[in-house]
């Protein structure tokens, strides 16, 4: 079970309609698909979620030739600097790259041993993983998109009818607050008592976030993700709401000290892979800080977070997903399709998904033709406007 080679391919996963968020909009997602080949001829699949990392993956992979798939700590030591900062490299980037390779190592090990990754992590405590249904203003493309509050509410209602969706989460800080109040009113009417979450992606200053909380409080919001960018600002909002806060920023010590946010939402790359993420989740649980996964990965990364979610009891509540919006994927069977607000744990060894070579080639050619996304298109959303208070 030793590594023979590591290869990487940049791909673009198109969205069925470009969606708007506080930074602008995006029509596609650029990812790096990783393949780890063992000396037994087994291929493990992994993914870097933050764009084209081919050069970094190949350089890191060259250091891992001959390493046993089970030697995660040894492999990490060869790739990730052992300090928080170095002037000779980017520690965060190295951690993300190793996280993608390490994902493939787990997949290859599971395939070699003939068991799913969830079993390697101690066994599944659940066989289905809860997921949100996402909404946002979207621009016309494959799908017609949603241009008005009523359009978005009708979309949510359609997802209930077609897929039995149970938890809705969507973008705010993209148009005027008055229009978003109307949007949330229409959505609440359309989804009834189902759970409703919102995500500003740090798009508000503290004073504007206070106004937003006051304006949105009537709509029974259960979670508000990143009303502000900083933990300190979110902590200052505590006196104004009983809504729970979540953040993509990872600082467990500060979260414990400030008692905010209530949950950290990230992927498997950011913390350096499956092993490091499992350790982090357990540490967060000890301090009563929740954990969920966010979406935006291919079927490979999505399968990995399903495996971890199945194996780690502390991953509670619905994680995020954009899967319904994908126009393509690199795995056999195409994009996963949640039903009744859940996805079943993939069947089979390792991550439980198989690479579709034709789809990989198609998505790679799309990357060559289009370049990297998200491109941060200006003018399609308010961008930094709310940051000016």
Characterise the protein shown here.
With 389 residues, the protein is an alpha/beta fold. The chain folds into 2 domains: 3-114 and 371-388, Enolase-like, N-terminal domain (Enolase-like, domain 1, 2-Layer Sandwich), CATH 3.30.390.10; 120-354, TIM Barrel, CATH 3.20.20. 35% of the residues lie in helices and 20% in strands. It contains 12 helices and 12 strands. The chain has helices at residues 54-62, 72-79, 91-113, 117-120, 149-163, 177-191, 206-216, 231-236, 252-258, 274-286, 299-311, 357-370, and strands at residues 3-21, 24-38, 43-48, 128-130, 133-135, 167-171, 195-199, 221-225, 244-247, 263-266, 290-293, 342-344. The strands form 3 sheets. It has a 7-stranded parallel β-sheet with strand order 5-6-7-8-9-10-11, with helices on one face. It has a 3-stranded antiparallel β-sheet with strand order 1-2-3. The chain has a two-stranded antiparallel sheet with strand order 4-12. Strand 6 (167-171), helix 6 and strand 7 form a beta-alpha-beta unit. Helix 1 crosses helix 3 (91-113) and helix 5 (149-163) runs parallel beside helix 6 (177-191). The longest helix has 23 residues, at 91-113. The radius of gyration is 20 Å and the shape is globular. The protein starts with a strand and ends in a 19-residue tail after the last helix. Mean pLDDT is 94; it is low at 376-389.
